Amino acid sequence: MTMDQDRKKVLTSVDEFVEACAQFRKTLSAVSTSNRRARTLVEKGRPVREVLAAIPTGAIRKTMTQQIEELEAARHNVRLAVFTLGLDEGLSIGELGRTMGFSRQLASIYAKEARGDT
Prior knowledge:
Layout: H1 3-43, H2 48-54, H3 57-88, H4 93-100, H5 104-115
């Protein structure tokens, strides 16, 4: 890839991460609503069976797991795109890791992936 393509990849991955964050916020809001409803039922002394039947527990779990995975994947893509561009611009692996707030070991993993060594 050229540096311009790498820069576009950073922009695209940031946009995708922002969208994943927005979707995650919607999911968290729905989960919070369901949990408040469950709390109210427990507070009223309803049996657990009734509480669990009143909220879509299984669907909530699946949706949360999926949203977390999508958010993590989008975050990974941003990091990878930034690493690729940073390496192209001459930044060291250590500098990228320090700036992004993680270990030299994790930075090395991202650098390998950015270079296509994985």
